[in-house]
């Protein structure tokens, strides 16, 4: 199998690698460079667990051969703490990472690095996206655990930090609402239920 | 299943002398106790890319395993030629069934005591079944080798669905166990005579057929392992994607003959489980056998297509439901028939004593006098399974059935479905409630939940809007679907549930260190549920510690106490109970040390949950924290006490817990395209006391997304030749952020009376409870035109078919100013 020498700049460090031409970029990152934060969840380019930030955009590193990335500059999740924005929030982390923690944007964590990188690509381009834009931009990344709601909030949190706004403290909708049984057997709530927002638009409806 | 089971000695800790935690009233003690929103302790390693999943494990000399799989669903294996593969550079070994036979590993038991080939020798029984394995120096070389393994097959006619498998002339899937037909078992529950009588006497009866399609849990991380045989110590270590490491250790030992203390299973970070990672799969056994033979570590990790096509599916129940009722909507009986497709092996994950698991909870939240159910299970040439995908052993199918049938009845009677529910709910004062199929529901308040749900969603306004749209002949129909389900989770009781004979208890070990910090080891483990945080909160609550001072460890059988695993929402009900009881045992010993330190009699020492301190009765200033006492236990142990402060508990629950919910789904059905837009999903869950509201809500969001996927998109489908036609993420569609609407969660609290901290478990409620709400909503949108059912997944073409049948479909051209080249721009 033909081998080729390539150079990848990953998280600011140059790496000279000799790789088979058929080696996928994701395997070069995970196995040759030992950066296992980038994950693999499918063989078809559908899940986005392998998303990295390459030359200014989010790419699925399972859809590229390592040789195609020769000479490129790549950021993986492991490089996020060294980004200039790291530390702008309340921790040493990048605001997106902090957002995922604060807004409970992860459960098993398997999709998380890909989501963080997709979020980075979005915020680089538009540091104050709407909910719809966020949903659209992460729609190439599958998450089986969170239902996406708190992932959206995580990225919104980062946008708040980047725009010098106070981010929310909690993703919780119904925090310790004191509940009493009303005399009629029904329930009186105390701020626990704000009722539905019937005016909002859901992005699911206008695809195609 | 009554609650008066064996009273174990630790039953006395179930009810704490101070009444136990009441997070609704007090909201925790402010240091990360019960009910507090504690941010997850485990997050950091995941958001920095430093998690450690199975595929991240790298060992010196590690080899890679690639499995050679059958392209046929049903075929004799004529011969296997391995020479060309073996001759390749980098290929270390090629294994076939014959090689495994030498170690007695050619077959393995399934969780239902069936026998499945690890590698097939005679006949493949489903597409992509394991036939040979190539072990090579890297994953690419292993794949190259697999391509060079030649297998000659003689293909046979396959049988793909249960209906066909039932026929007398159907091809037989399992000659290997001398089956002459494909029938596996018949199971019956309830009182047939009483049910028949009720039907005969009924004012109204309704019937509906519904198919709960085959699904796959599809966690984003597939299954895999790294097996490492250490010849010097004769010890097998397997890092594997396991939801039940200890049970897997026992099974591994039983299958391999390696003594159990020489088997170590490590379940490191796991990228989602949802039931997929409960069974043992051939790949694990192959990797372990290869490591044993080659004395080198061997890694096996599935590709996505292997995951969906070969590891356990869920559901695949073809059901017919019937309800008998009075004319004013009181349900008098329910009757169910099920045809179950179990695939090529009986490999359901089903630890209860009932072949159809907890399906017999199909009377739901309703007080129904007579019930009867009958189920027949068949082998087919499809992947084996029938596991509990985010589900307690078929409760999902049961809930779907009853929640759909209540809607069918409401439609027949022309009553509001909320009203029919109210009429039939088990009343609040009837708990503990004995159901017609033999369960004892622990607690519930269904009226309160439904009332709150309807009020919160402005149900009556929605009904008005629905009418308006019908009157205006609107292009979009509005549908409102309800689901007021009851779940059954927390298996145990050990007397009724076991895995390979091991009773389904769970465990916790708490050790206090001299400086007052605690290490907690638990028998359950996490695949994302957040145990490292929530279990620490239980200990923090019970011992008054700061949650930051409690470290939770899990997933390593060498160090953790024996547990039965995390699935079926059993962690909190069983493992959480063990943790609370172990903490109370620690507190009991601590009290006597406190008495010694404070120089008073033990009776004069009281525990204050709020401050997390012991103090002398009536003298709150004379107090000691658990941390102080931990120090004393090591440095100044009382004469009548051993030094140290630790406790362990193996908790056998006296009953399951019965969480419940009231869900409201609002959809718009497009009469021009058949598209369904979920405009709103409101989920009120009652899981008893909540340990961490943030984690609870996260679980609900995730489960709802899976329920939406079930209702709208997902189906592991096969063609007539047994080819999997949705066997990867291009065809098996998981919902993305675009398909999932913003969801609204809500809650009520009805604590479990028998659980030490009043919790019930919540993980699977949304997956179980949401599909019927969504189907009910879609049917609701069309019922004025006579539609009574739509099968899942409710794809646009399927809904369009219903719209057409009912005369509701609209030709989009009618509304359009015909503009020949003005094709609507198709999005982007
Ligand atoms: S692994 Fe790259 S998209 Fe799934
Ligand atoms: S957090 Fe598990 S897949 Fe997203």
Task: Describe the protein's architecture and organization.
The complex is a heterodimer of chains A (208) and B (828). Chain A starts with a strand and ends in a 19-residue tail after the last strand. Chain A has helices at 25-32, 95-102, 112-125, 131-137, 149-162, and strands at 3-10, 13-20, 51-54, 57-60, 73-75, 179-181, 187-189. The model of chain A is unreliable at 177-208 (pLDDT under 50). In chain A, helix 2 (95-102) packs across helix 5 (149-162). In chain A, the strands form two sheets. A five-stranded mixed beta sheet of chain A has the order 2-1-5-3-4, with helices on both faces. Chain A is built from five helices and seven strands; from the N terminus they run E-E-H-E-E-E-H-H-H-H-E-E. Chain A is α+β, with helices and mostly antiparallel strands. Chain A is globular. By secondary structure, chain B is α+β, with helices and mostly antiparallel strands. In chain B, the strands form nine sheets. Chain B has a seven-stranded mixed beta sheet, sandwiched between helices. In chain B, strands 9, 10, 15, 16, 17 and 18 form a six-stranded mixed beta sheet that branches. In chain B, strands 21-31-32-33 form a four-stranded mixed beta sheet, sandwiched between helices. In chain B, helix 11 (395-413) crosses helix 12, helix 15 (531-543) runs parallel beside helix 16 and helix 18 packs across helix 19 (765-782). The longest helix of chain B has 28 residues, at 571-598. Residues 822-828 of chain B have low confidence and may be disordered. Chains A and B meet through helix 1, helix 2, helix 3, helix 4 and helix 5 of A and helix 2, helix 13, strand 32, helix 18 and strand 33 of B. The structure holds FE2/S2 (inorganic) cluster (2 copies). One FE2/S2 (inorganic) cluster sits between chains A (106-112, 143-146) and B (220, 272, 528).
